[in-house]
Amino acid sequence: MIPITIALSKGRIFDDTAPLLKAAGIVALEDPETSRKLILATTRDTVRLIIVRASDVPTYVQYGAADMGIAGKDVLLEHGGAGLYQPLDLNIARCRMMVAVRDEFDYDSAVRRGARLRVATKYLHTAREHFAEKGMHVDLIKLYGSMELAPLVGLADAIVDLVSSGNTLRANQLKAVEEIVPISARLVINQAALKLKRETIQPMLEAFSAASMQRGASQEVTEVAHQ
Ligand code: PRT
Ligand code: MG
Description:
This protein has helices at residues 12-23, 57-62, 73-79, 107-113, 124-133, 167-171, 191-196, 198-226, and strands at residues 4-8, 39-41, 47-51, 68-72, 84-89, 95-102, 117-121, 138-142, 158-163, 174-183, 185-190. It has 2 domains: 4-93 and 184-225, 3-Layer(aba) Sandwich (D-Maltodextrin-Binding Protein, domain 2); 95-182, 3-Layer(aba) Sandwich (D-Maltodextrin-Binding Protein, domain 2). The mean pLDDT is 94. The chain is α/β, with parallel strands linked by helices and 227 residues long. The strands form 2 sheets. It has a 6-stranded mixed β-sheet with strand order 2-3-1-4-11-5. It has a 5-stranded mixed β-sheet with strand order 8-7-9-6-10. Helix content is 36%, strand content 28%. It is elongated and about 60 Å long. Bound molecules: phosphoribosyl ATP and magnesium ion. Residues 9, 11-13, 53-55, 72, 74-75, 93, 95, 145, 161-168, 183, 185 line the site of phosphoribosyl ATP. Phosphoribosyl ATP binds next to helix 1, helix 3, strand 9 and helix 6.
C-alpha cells in the first residue's frame, strides 16, 4: 500500500476528526495535545498524521507535503483553494463568520449613512469580498487573534470573526450584526495525490463520508430529542 500523510491541527479540529479517523480504522499512536512530536504514526502503518497550524493545512496539502488534510472553510476561503480538491464537508467544527460591533454601536445607521468603518480581522480576503458586495467602504486592519478586543480599545469599529456559542462576544459587550458565511471543516486532498494514490484515498474518503453522515444524522436526532 502507498503511504498517506494527513495534515491536521490540534484542538477542536483534531478532537472532532478523531472519531472520523477511527471509523476509517486510523487512530494516532500518541496524543497530539501531550506529545511534542509533529509527525504521528497511527494504527495503520501506511498512514501518518502531521500536526500543523490550522491556517497552514491547505498549504501543506497544496504542495503535496501532505496528501490530504482537514481545514475550516474560513481557512480555505483565505487560502483560495489552489491545487486542492474539496470533496467533502465533514460537518465538524461548525461556527459562523460574523460581523460584530460594540453593544451600543448602531451598525445599521452607520451602513445607511455610508460611514467608512474600520474593521479588524484575521480574514482579510473574506471581509474584503463581503463589504465590497455590500458596496461599503471599509479600512481593514489585519490581526492574528483576539479580534474581540479591537472595538473595545478603539482600534476598530467592527470585527469579522468566527462565532460559535456567542459567549466570547457577550463577555466583551459585543453583538453580532451580520452573518457572512456558515463555517464547517472540509476534507481537502492534493489533486495529484488523488490521481496517484486513488486506491488508498478512495476507501478513506468513503469511510469519512459515511462517518460524517452518521454524525449529521445523530446530531439531528439529539436536536429533536431536546425540543
Ligand atoms: O489557534 P491558531 O491561531 O493556531 O489557529 P485557529 O484559531 O485558526 O485554530 P483553532 O484550532 O482555534 O480553530 C480551528 C478551526 O475551528 C477554525 O479554522 C474554524 O474553522 C473552527 N472553529 C469552529 C472555530 C470556532 N468554531 C470558534 N469558535 N475557530 C475559532 N473559534 C473562536 C473564535 O475565533 C472566537 O474567538 O472561538 C471564539 C468564539 O467562540 P464562542 O463559542 O465564544 O462564540
Ligand atoms: Mg485558536
